[in-house]
Amino acid sequence: MRLPFAAAVLATTLAAPAAHALTLYDNFSATSLSSFRWNASEATDDDGVIVDSRRALDSGHMRLEAKSYGGTIVNAGAGLARFGMRLARSADVTALQATLTARTATTPACAGNSTFPSQVDLRLGGGFFNADRRTLPGDSLLNDVQAWIGLTRNANDATLTVSAHVVQCLNDACTISNTLGTATLGNTSLDIPIGMSVTWDKAGHQFAFTSGLVAGTAFVPYTVSDVQPAHDAAKTI
Questions:
Q1: What are the residue boundaries of the structural domains of the chain, listed by start?
Q2: How far apart are CA 195 and CA 46, in angstroms?
Q3: Cβ–Cβ < 8 Å for 85, 237
Q4: Cys-Cys crosslink for 183: which of 68, 84, 122, 164, Cβ 3.0 to 4.6 Å?
Q5: Cα-atom radius of gyration of the chain, to the nearest Å?
Q6: Phi, psi for residue 160 in degrees, rounded to 5
Q7: What pTM was computed for the model?
Q8: Residue 216 contacts residue 112 (beta carbons within 8 Å)
């Protein structure tokens, strides 16, 4: 069984593709989210379901809330549910920076399934390139390389951790992936705003991650090909 719930308050900036010079993307000062800047994003696998969700602007912040379950028929495997907002025009974006605040993060455990503990994530990132030179038909994410930074809590550990991940998708929906590298950038608690960023350094064949909880930059190198553009280059919160 999986029952994560999370709420976020955040402000976001994004970067131009060349020198990673950050420019303000949205200060959330409007009365509603702009369809010119944002598209709603939701996805589940066969065992995941979103039962409640909310997107809204609140006092100069974007608030995201979602509640989802995994399958309850058998105590095996893991259900997946994704909920958030996609930057409407982000194919050329190579860097993202945001302030994320986790207001609530609840992950009840499933006693019969210790292999896959319930987990909730509040993250920033997306697809940056594809590691295979072949052109795939349709909407397949196979071999897309994604990079993410965000807050994570699982049912076995009450700690709220800032972690970064670089993964290569191994199937069309990217529900299975190969981890190319990770980094941990501090622990925190609920209701604490955390500034964080992810930057693709193509020339250096690496991703750079920062967190307001630790000094310096965490670099995650990769050795796969980065010549092809991602099949889905959307950047998401």
A1: 5-109+117-236
A2: 34
A3: yes
A4: 164
A5: 17
A6: -100, 110
A7: 0.86
A8: no
pLDDT digit string (tens) for 57-86?
888 888 888 777 776 666 666 667 778 889
Are 180 and 166 within 8 A, CB to CB?
yes
Nearest Cα neighbor of 129 from 169, 173, 163 is 169
178 to 45, 80, 175: CA distances (angstroms): 18, 16, 10
CA distance 103 to 88: 25
The pLDDT of residue 207? 98
Number of H helices, E strands in the chain: 0, 15
Helices (H), 68-109: none
CB 202 within 8 A of CB 165: no
Q: What is the pLDDT of residue 71?
A: 67
Three-class SS state of 212? coil
Q: How many CB atoms lie within 10 A of CB 9?
A: 19
Q: What is the pLDDT of residue 12?
A: 42
The two three-digit tokens of residue 126, written as one number: 């997306």
Question: 110 near 2, Cβ under 8 Å?
Answer: yes
- With a cut of 70, which residues of the chain have pLDDT below it? 1-20, 45-47, 71-79, 114-115, 133-137
Q: Which pLDDT score is estimated for 14?
A: 40
